[in-house]
Amino acid sequence: MDTDDELMARALGLARHGWGTTNPNPMVGALIVEAGEVVAEGWHAKDGGPHAERAALTALGRRPRPGATMVVTLEPCSTAGRTGACCDAIKAAGIARVVIGATDPNPAHAGRGARVLREAGIDVTDGVRAAECAELNLIFNHWITTGRPLIAAKIATTRDGFSRPAPGEDRWITGGVARADVHRWRRLFPAIATGAGTVAADDPALTRRWTDEATGEAREDCGVRFVFDSQLRTAAGPSEGWPRVYADRWCERTVVVAGAAADLDTERRLTEAGVRVWRQETTRGARGWAEFASRCAAERISGVYLEGGAELLADARSAGAATYGFWYRAPREAGAGWGGRVDWRLAEPVEERLGDDTLTRGKFL
Ligand SMILES: NC(=O)c1ccc[n+]([C@@H]2O[C@H](COP(=O)([O-])OP(=O)(O)OC[C@H]3O[C@@H](n4cnc5c(N)ncnc54)[C@H](OP(=O)(O)O)[C@@H]3O)[C@@H](O)[C@H]2O)c1
Q1: What is the pLDDT of residue 293?
Q2: Domain ranges across the chain
Q3: What is the pLDDT of residues 305-331, one digit of tens each?
Q4: How much is the mean pLDDT over the chain?
Q5: Above 80 in pLDDT, residue 224?
Q6: Atom 43, ligand 1: which residue's CA is nearest?
Q7: Pocket of ligand 1 contains residue 156 by CB under 6 Å
Q8: Contact (CB, 8 A) for 302 and 143
């Protein structure tokens, strides 16, 4: 018979089916166990859709047998939102025992679901693989406690911390496995952002590209793409020569964050092409980032993955706007003369080996 810990690991796997599709909601997985056998599985797939607990009950398709256990990665909700409180559904189904991973990160609700279930006479075990279950929802945890998007900075550097390839060198610093991992995180975040310098230098697509595990097919999609360009200089020329983020089939997902003095005619041409322009008093510093974050919040954009370049990242860091870092490091050394050197300090860093490269991620200290 599987232990609570093993069952929670399986529920975590189910939760990950919602990778990138549940925003601004959390990823959650749930199982129903009868006499030591897993008889139903569920996960939260989409904002507004059924929660994992209800999905598992629906998948079971009948009333759970007496003594049944539910294993769920996040504390069940106790207040009815759009889909009704999961605690009510668990009680009504006659579940005898509930095993919980992470506590609800919303301070107004934390511990309430477990209490409501206990008060109904249900046996509750909480805190199983709690850290892993909580870590899975790094975007949601920030969003629900601050009402603002998690702004995460990503950088790839050489081992000694240089992010800019020297002229004439390969533009890629890290290898294929690390670059595929970047696309995985791009898929999790509802939005990507980059600076005018990177768009001018690299003409990036800023889409998410990956290989479908089941079919082996190459896939591509696109979230919101922000370009920080106070003067709209990346769109100053004729539209035939525009960077691809203003001209490809996803150009309506591109938003240019511009300053008050940006050229009106360029704004009009972008808008006519379907690209949105967010005018701000300033695009820089604490004021600029605060305005940007509150506009994202108004559009329910719960996370922004900042892809550089160095100037944008430096401003987001010094303004205190970027609170989470993804630092990919290649084994090669650059030596001096490669522009600014990165030396991020991250709290409780998670470290992963990706081919020859290393990813270190965590909250900025
Ligand atoms: N290794 C990596 O992970 C990585 C990732 C991305 C890019 N890169 C490389 O980095 C290079 C470009 O970097 P970069 O530092 O020159 O340019 P950048 O950071 O992409 O863009 C900087 C420009 O963005 C505009 N901007 C608007 N709001 C800003 C804000 N809040 N903070 C900072 N800038 C703001 C500014 O232009 P205005 O004043 O005109 O608005 C600024 O000059 C390219 O060579 C690219 O290949 C490396």
Answers
A1: 98
A2: 4-137, 147-364
A3: 999 888 999 999 999 999 999 999 999
A4: 94
A5: yes
A6: 197
A7: yes
A8: yes
Beta strands per DSSP E along the chain: 29-34, 37-43, 69-74, 97-102, 123-125, 150-157, 191-195, 208-211, 218-221, 224-228, 254-258, 276-279, 303-306, 324-329, 346-354, 357-364
Cβ atoms within 10 Å of 54's Cβ, excluding its own: 20
Span 64-89, pLDDT tens digits: 999 999 999 999 998 876 667 999 99
- The yes/no answer on whether domain 147-364 falls in CATH 3.40.430.10 is yes
Report the C-alpha gap between 215 and 197 in whole angstroms: 37
Cα distance between the two ends of the chain: 42
Distance 253 CA to ligand 1 centre (A): 20
**Structure tokens given for 105:** 């990160």
4-137 CATH: 3.40.140.10
Report the atom number in ligand 1 closest to the C-alpha of 202: 47
Give the whole-angstrom CA distance, residue 9 versus residue 188: 20
Determine how β-strand 346-354 pairs with β-strand 324-329: unpaired
For 150, the token pair is 């998690």
Going by their DSSP bridges, the two strands 303-306 and 224-228 should be labelled as: unpaired
Query: Confidence band (pLDDT; 50, 70, 90) for 335?
Result: confident
Q: Which atom of ligand 1 is nearest to the CA of 284?
A: 31
Number of residues that make up the chain: 365
Which amino acid is located at 260 in the chain?
A
Q: What's the whole-model pTM score? A: 0.95
Name the more confident of 358 and 82: 358
Question: Which structure tokens are listed for 164?
Answer: 């800019």
Vertex 323 angle, CA 320 and 324, to 5°: 150
